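Intended use. Records like the one below are meant for learning the mapping from a protein sequence to its folded structure. Do not use them to infer anything beyond what is encoded.
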Amino acid sequence: MADKKKLFLLDAFALIYRSHFAFIRTPRINSKGMNTSAVFGVTMTILDVIKKENPTHIAMVFDAPGGSIRNEQYTEYKAHREEMPEDIRIAIPYIKQLCDALNIPTLQATGFEADDVIGTLAKKAEKEDFVTYMMTPDKDFAQLVSENIFMYRPGRSGKPREIWGIEEVCEKFEISNPLQVIDILGLWGDAADNIPGIPGIGEKTSKKLVAQYGSIEGLIAHSDELKGKQKENVINFAEQGLLSKKLATILLDAPVEFDEKSFIREEADKDKIRALFTELEFRQLAKRVTGEDIVIKKIAPPPLPETSIKKNGQMDLFGQPIETPSNIQNTKPTESNLTEDIIQLKTIDNTPHNYKFIESDNEVKQLIQELLKQKSICFDTETSGLEKQTAELLGIAFSYKKGQGFYVSMPTKWEDAVERVALFTPIFQSKSIEKIAHNFKFDETILLRYGIEICGPSFDTMIAHYLLQPDFKHGMDFLSESYIGYKPVSIESLIGPKGKNQKSMKDLKPSEISEYASEDADVTFQLKTLFEKQFQEKNIKNLLYGIEMPVSSVLMSMEFEGITLDTKALSKFSIELSNSLSELHEGIIQDAGMEFNVDSPKQLGDVLFNVLQIDEKAKNN
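Structure written out for the chain above:
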């Protein structure tokens, strides 16, 4: 086998989805905001298999657009599959460019799935004395395994790769012939592809029945030997079972030719690799493939514009010009401000912003008048801690426009803070102004403790992102980096690293919190704008506004009110339980005829089986 030609056929979409979701909790986002997880994962997979397995021939096989002939056989085939994630859709052209740069041919056949193309090529290659490895995690391919055709399941989460030959397939599926995998899949069905199977028959039962009767046809022919509901289902759904077997069968007559020369593995095109990896910002991978460092050019951030317009030392609170401003610096990039470096995330230091620290009563009144003009505002409470029922309100940040934010500090005395918060009542109780926050329930609880009940439409970016991407992280910092390519100021930079010496936000001056808090409100407002567009595209807006946000408000009220406990009744019940346990303990000791620790499983087992010998056959471990 070692001297034979080795062909690797890669199941493109199986590897693409696998790569994308391998990074689902920590996606790779480049400076352009593109999620490069799928491209990176596929690249690593290909490079790994080339290095470790040294195939003589290789190809990447894609599903052709427009479905397959199976849709004609069964209209519900794959009908329930979710729409392809946008990040994967964007990645596909780059993965095809990757294959081109690595000189790996790509194939597809109209009306046929990648499974069929791989199956057809594998069988043709077998006749040409090839050993073929079908690289995929998809169990369906097990039906194709033969003496010279293997499944190559890539490793994941630290687990090594698996190679399934005839022996491995027969062992895993408990069958005598890999072709019987088709019968197992036909009986079992496949929820992912919407193959119905026969009701009531799962994985274990399907293996058992195929092992006993050899095939679905054999099972149907001996259905009279079955009992109960299983017999009824096999008889009533016999045709459905045969259709499912047909749908699960990988076709071996796809219109593709096996031209040995076109599959020969060649060296990568370094120029194409360099260009592609520079665009994707795969610096280390470029070094690995080309042996050279690549330079990723970025435009140095222009000098930050002044955050307000001045006239004789006066400035408008909201950054609006009192007069026509004087000369504004031209920030158009030139050759002189191009730097060669790795592109980094935007930060508060290199991103234009207009954040205001609001402290005086007059500034507060001006801000309130401005907020009342808005259709949507984002707010974020800054507190002394994370315990909603005890944390002190230090201030509230607001934003209603990208790059703009206001931080209103609160007096240290409770009564004075309540009085200042009350000034914002018209905003929070407005039924026309939408209120936006990240982890809305927390901010809502804090304000309720200070006498403000929020009314009107609301939007929680944390809940919104959960609805859009339930498997992702939902923290604001993570979302900011992932969706807008911006790294917020870390709280540790203000109060120090976690530990006994970490300060509290309460230890800081209000002015020291201002930009941090304003940035949070600004970023959350930007996230809301992005998520709202996706909600409209996915048509799930009603789910947030009609269910999630109202339920969140109800949960907040329940948590705020808490539960009343009848301590007298619970105390009385505790005494009763204690007395009952004492009586039971005494009764056990009396029946055993000896003192021992009833709470010790080992001592209890010794008494039951060795002393009392309640069961002579039982073993005391």
